[in-house]
Design brief:
Layout: E1 13-22, E2 25-35, E3 40-45, H1 51-58, E4 66-71, E5 81-84, H2 96-101, E6 108-109, E7 112-113, H3 115-128, H4 144-157, E8 167-171, H5 179-194, E9 198-202, H6 206-212, E10 215-220, E11 223-229, H7 235-243, H8 248-251, E12 264-272, E13 279-284, E14 288-292, H9 302-307, E15 314-319, E16 322-323, H10 329-334, E17 337-340, H11 344-348, H12 355-366, E18 368-369, E19 372-373, H13 375-388, H14 405-418, E20 423-427, H15 435-450, E21 454-458, H16 462-468, E22 471-476, E23 479-485, H17 491-499
The structure holds adenosine-5'-triphosphate and magnesium ion.
Length: about 500
């Protein structure tokens, strides 16, 4: 897969002594490394280790305190950097084409934007990414996975009109993608490298590093641990560098717990929505049901149908024997359904509020004194919860926007889990969470199930679903095509059912 290239005079990226603090948080400390021409260079590190801050400095969004960097080979050249930021930075109320033109020098005809030409530039890029949508689609109407594809298309468009990209930076661009979609992004990265550019690939997935990267730089607490050749390392060694400890204990996946013999708690009977067709399923108290498939297979709609049953075109949903109706999420929540949504920034955390306030819908219930919120109690409770979920933060009053992406995800999980819901719906719950913490969070979900919660675990990550769930359903074209017990040893069969047509075994 990795191919030789013609090398350029200077490396596409050379970073020397970059340093950045936010108040007392030393986010990036004296970081130096190069991305060579023709190289895919992975950037690894635990949540909050400084990866995105480094990316923001290189792309000009954050000013370094000291140190510097060089992009491209000379001062006379136009810099061609394409960046996919972790939060994608898309405008939901604009089209795919408008998003891909934002912040770039656009083609003009007189005083007007030459939209036809921009469209002609974009179309082959969308084709190369196997996009299932066109330039006129509104970004708001796309799934989180497809929104990631738009952000990648925008980054590639920077190199489309002239010379190829000097540098492509992907900050967890594959976090929302799995299987063939993630492979396609990695192939794109290899293509940019083969044209003589460099790629900085930020990811938590060791398999992506091993399959697509030439070298890897590992950060811990803002500083470089080491830069290694990928061909002379393995997953275990990389994980050890990321977590700073021996990970053999983490690798052991205990067998999933057995489901109990009680009556099912959540029952879907012949449910049909926009993408889901005629789907029936049952989850018992104490059981974790995984649902997966290829991107666009319809399983992504399931969490929305359960939290907003009025969106079902047909079929019924019962919770504890009672018909679930509800036109708002808060109605469904009051019936005991907790949800961790896939689109954290839109439906998850309150970006303008603090860590404590984000935990607060839960905290308030536990910490009321005569109906009023006990503030000091709430603060110490928030601190304890943040520590139990290994949230790295300056303190409970830190604004949630100052937390790294993975740490925001942990706050969201903490809030929903501590509410002790009867039914827990998890939609891509570990996106952007580093590997050691991901395993810890799955253990916490298992604990919730052991305490009697029925869990629906929806993710495009086959390994994760297989490892976490007692039972797994695979959807294709909105219908269930495969059912399997959970367990990592079943992952290959589940993967085949998700991605290979003709492998259906009901
Ligand atoms: N604007 C900001 N204000 C205050 N602190 C910040 C800000 N941006 C980042 N930080 C802090 O800097 C540190 C590094 O954060 P960064 O987002 O770079 O981590 P990361 O390695 O990308 O993590 P993740 O894997 O979770 O995305 C964290 O402690 C974070 O809370
Ligand atoms: Mg980040």
């Amino acid at each position: 897969m990795k191919s030789p290239v013609t090398s350029r005079s200077a490396p596409p990226l050379s970073v020397r002594g970059l340093t950045k603090s936010f108040g007392s948080t030393r986010a990036v400390r004296d970081v130096s490394f190069d991305v060579r021409s023709g190289e895919v260079h992975a950037l690894l590190g635990h949540n909050g280790s400084g990866k995105s801050t480094l990316v923001k400095m290189i792309s000009g969004l954050v000013r370094p305190d000291s140190g510097g960097f060089n992009v491209g080979s000379g001062a006379d050249e136009v810099l061609r950097i394409g960046v996919v930021h972790q939060d994608l930075a898309l405008c939901a109320d604009a089209t795919v084409l408008e998003n891909c033109c934002m912040g770039d020098a656009v083609a003009r005809r007189g005083p007007f934007v030459d939209w036809d030409r921009e469209r002609r530039t974009l179309l082959p890029i969308l084709d190369s990414l196997a996009a299932h949508f066109g330039p006129s689609t509104m970004v708001r109407d796309l799934s989180p996975a497809n929104q990631a594809v738009v952000a990648i298309a925008r980054a590639l468009k920077r190199g489309a009109t002239g010379a190829p990209l000097d540098l492509l930076i992907l900050d967890e661009a594959t976090a929302r993608l799995r299987g063939t979609d993630a492979d396609m992004v990695l192939a794109t990265a290899r293509r940019v490298a083969a044209q003589g550019g460099g790629v900085l690939l930020v990811t938590h997935h060791m398999s992506e590093v091993l399959s697509a990267a030439d070298r890897a730089t590992v950060l811990a607490s803002g500083a470089v641990v080491d830069t290694v050749e990928v061909s002379s390392t393995d997953e275990e060694q990389l994980l050890r560098m990321v977590s700073g400890r021996d990970v053999t204990a983490l690798r052991r996946t205990p067998p999933p717990p057995k489901a109990t013999d009680q009556a099912p708690l959540l029952v879907l009977d012949r449910v049909t929505g926009e993408q889901v067709h005629d789907l029936s399923l049952e989850i018992r108290a104490g059981e974790i049901l995984g649902v997966t498939g290829a991107t666009g297979a319809g399983f992504e709609e399931l969490p929305y149908l359960i939290t907003r049953p009025d969106r079902c075109h047909d079929g019924t949903i019962h919770l504890g024997g009672v018909l679930l109706r509800g036109r708002t999420y808060s109605e469904t929540r009051s019936r005991g359904v907790g949800v961790v949504p896939a689109d954290r920034l839109i439906n998850g955390v309150y970006v303008a509020a603090s860590v404590r306030e984000n935990l607060s819908p839960v905290v308030r219930r536990h910490n009321r004194v005569l109906g009023l919120v006990a503030n000091p109690k709430e603060r110490s409770w928030a601190r304890r919860t943040a520590s139990a979920f290994q949230v790295r933060t300056a303190g409970p009053d830190a604004p949630i926007g100052s937390l790294s992406g993975g740490n925001q995800q942990k706050v969201l999980l903490a809030r929903v889990l501590e509410d002790r819901p009867k039914v827990l719906i998890l939609h891509e719950p570990t996106q952007g969470v580093d590997e050691p913490t991901r395993r810890a969070l799955i253990e916490i979900v298992r604990g919730a199930a052991r305490a009697g919660t029925a869990v629906l675990y929806v993710s495009c990550d086959v390994d994760e679903v297989a490892g976490a769930a007692d039972r797994v359903l695979v959807l294709r074209d909105g219908r269930c095509v495969h059912e399997s017990p959970g367990g990592l040893d079943r992952a290959d069969a589940i993967y085949a059912a998700s991605y290979l047509t003709g492998t259906t075994t009901p």
